[in-house]
User: Fold this.
Amino acid sequence: MAPPKPQDDITPPVLYFNRRAIMRGAAVAASALATGGLYRLLNAKSEAVVATRRLAGVTQATPRDAHALGYPVDEPMTSFADVTHYNNFYEFTTDKDGVADSAAGFSTAGWRIAVEGLVRRPRVFSMADLAALGAPEERVYRMRCVEAWSMVIPWAGFSLSKLLEAVEPTAEARFVAFETLHDPARMPGQRVASLDWPYVEGLRLDEAMHPLTLLATGLYGRELPPQDGAPVRLVVPWKYGFKGIKSIVKISLTATQPPCTWNVRAPGEYGFLANVNPQVDHPRWSQATEQRIGETGRRPTLMFNGYAEQVAHLYAGTDLRAHF
Ligand code: MTE
Assistant:
């Protein structure tokens, strides 16, 4: 594997967090263990106001549905205020606490998603076309960021497989590539080279077809707010959060593995698979435990983020240390 690129023009997430804590004079600042949970305690938000509409036709999953579908999460949900005010979305800012303000007013009117490549029926979808694929279901998933913080989020959306089935992948298609909007006029973070733009991500076709893999258009029963990836983003709950690409405008079916933003930037730190794995540490920090936002103590990180029963078979025979 190629050596990681120098991290000169970007602050690594953990150091970034610590710098903010130092700036706020927190006693915990010097510790590399200072993470999102402490940050939230030091910067408690009361009820956050986020102006999104209720999402039409969301069917709320009952606990029984969740069990039947094999993805129950018996853990408290992260507050709406935290889900919408502690974000990673470098197209707006690298300041997690500032994304909501920077993205406020981002217009998604007339949004289109082109689905193309190795498919029999390439098509450009409007948001209304997406909604016609099926009423959004509520899915409560754990979300584990590679930086070792986590949340439990009630998403609304539908399995990506529904969209892929509609375009009919050809026999040659083996991967799915995703691309975020590139528009520096509307996304101020794209005016600086904090990452290579546009943000791109990818999955193997079997991962993309897995019923847990969600195209999310909402959370907490409302349309996605800009800071969480409006109007449509990917959610792959057994993988690190950076696979969950936001504000998608293009999906392409390909024969070869597509480039992925963080993997291209630092291949020694962020793999293509990026499965949550407490046994494989990041070169600069442990992945054994995590800080659940809104809680004080740390939780053990679960293999495949707690979805091993559903997805471990996808990686049978794969050396997960080599393919992290
Ligand atoms: N998608 C785009 N386009 N740009 C980003 O910077 N950040 C990723 C992912 N998707 C990111 C993105 C990372 S690192 C994480 S952890 C999640 O979004 C965070 O999602 P959230 O802010 O809704 O919790």
User: Anything to note?
Assistant: Confidence is low (pLDDT under 50) at residues 1-34.
